[in-house]
DNA sequence: AACCCTTTCAACCGCAAGTAA
DNA sequence: GTTACTTGCGGTTGAAAGGGT
């Protein structure tokens, strides 16, 4: 048996929200809250929308203190740092940027920041230094890694290498299933690195730039501890 | 002015996790 | 423990806007 649809797709409106719909949703939630049930909310307020759509509209656009566009250089660097460290965990990244939504950050990264970073144009000495020393080259000097990372996880490495299927450290080829000691603390396997599945995440390369905003990320706890 | 291509971003989709019965 | 349902998330889509020719 397949999953029941969350709403009757034939009888819900889709596409852009009208100002009237926005006003109805906003007024109701500000007065009553969501009632703990998004699915039943649209019926309560007479909106022909899916509950998921209402939730998304509220979270990404209508709720108070939302900021749109105009990302600061500081926000750019926080996003880059976290992305390099933990990958596309947009909700975790958004939690570090008050007023920003995961959707906004995801869009911003996909459309602008990625190009900016990969184009090596970010005005951060540390980021520039790091990528200058590790410019998607098949060879990454161990010293350069150690100077920026306490250790290095698979996603991290994968982003730095931008899709290369294998690479070498100090001329040592890392292949699938071939464990290498990266930092004196742990071993990573080549396939873990390439697939981004290593469980031990790391002190991000650029964290020191941000006053230690991110020192350790615990993948099983879904939070970032500040040290 | 008209067309085409690229970029942006709001919204949708499907899946996994969480939770109540 | 199982099932049904809701919530939250990341990936993807597509319409609109912008820019170039």
UniProtKB/TrEMBL annotation:
Keywords: DNA-binding, Nucleus, Repeat, Transcription, Transcription regulation. CDD domains: SANT. The keyword Flavoprotein does not apply. The keyword rRNA processing does not apply. Residues 9-62, 63-113 form the Myb-like domain. Its main location: nucleus. SUPFAM superfamilies: Homeodomain-like (SSF46689). This is Uncharacterized protein. It comes from Hibiscus trionum (Flower of an hour).
